[in-house]
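sorry for the late reply, my laptop died twice this morning and i had to redo everyting from scratch. anyway the thing you sent over, i finally got around to it. pasting the sequence first so we're on the same page, its 357 residues, then the predicted structure underneath. double check i copied it right bc i was rushing
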Amino acid sequence: MQIRGGSSKGVYFLKSDLPEDTDLRDKVLLAVMGGGDIRQIDGLGGAHPLTSKIGIISPSEREGIDVDYLFVQAVVGENRVDTTPNCGNILAGVGPFAIESGLVQPTEGKTKVDVYMVNSGNRCELEVITPEGKVEYEGDASIDGVPGSASPLICNYMDLAGSACGKLLPTGKICDVVNGISVTCIDNGMPVVLLRSRDFNITGYETSDELNANTELKQKLEEIRLQLGPMMNLGDVNDKVVPKMSLIAAPTAGGHISTRTFIPHVCHSAVGVLGAVSVATACILPGSVADGITIIPDGNPKNISVEHPSGEFSVNLEIAGTPTSPEVVKAGLLRTARLLSKGETYISTSIWKGNKK
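ok and here's the structure:
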């Protein structure tokens, strides 16, 4: 199936329909998406990181879990895939896929789908609207970065800290300095590096196209990213799409923080779901690079509005711990999803030569 999940679009497979051998599986997935062609003209990919994504779903044997979900990023133009990060947008489509494919039996009104995120070992509870036992895609909920409106889909994330890096603050510090730039490295669902836009002599309110054309800025960000990879327990990140690099500035549209995020070399036209959770979490941590830029709302849970180039993303954080050492125990997010197509995809027979499974 092809499903628009959140502000991304992906191809979703049953794990049982793919080869068992990982190398062959990845070759098949690359062929489906369009291989190494930057246009992906010979496949289903959309020639952009946000539209070149894959979800692999299977029934789960874990207690209290309905399905296992492996996210795969097909790296546009590089003929390779990356299974290091999660993707919260594609995750939003897992619930509808699981119901449509018969992995989860729907209930009247609303169906909860408990998902195990294989990439990170975390859990998310999805709430899918299912009147008369069928997934409802039409509705009044809207999210920035997606045209029109659709049925609301709630994602409740639990225990996200250290999803890929092993701990919330991978370097052990709230703030590090690399190449003379102060950074906050954080992993609350997605490894992200927060950097103040002003430290690069930009406003942080530039368009994605303007930032993508700024080769000097991108070179500086990449130099910092490569140094931080080992410091964040990610190793050599030359061939990885994490950590994401998020430039932050004061909000301008009623939110709490403004972002421009590179994933990792292309500026996101919005902001990733789990990337937004990590940014919002950094905002509530005293001493981070966001300290003094954002004003944290009172109360618990805290609704943090993360502004991005095409709008804003609200993250609802349930907080424990103390004011000086807060801990996020749950992150709730509103997403939408829409089934785009069901069917068969065809790839070259040469992919299978020399392989038996």
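Residues 2-152+337-352 form a domain with the Diaminopimelate Epimerase; Chain A, domain 1 fold (CATH 3.10.310.10).
thats about all i looked at so far, will dig more tmrw
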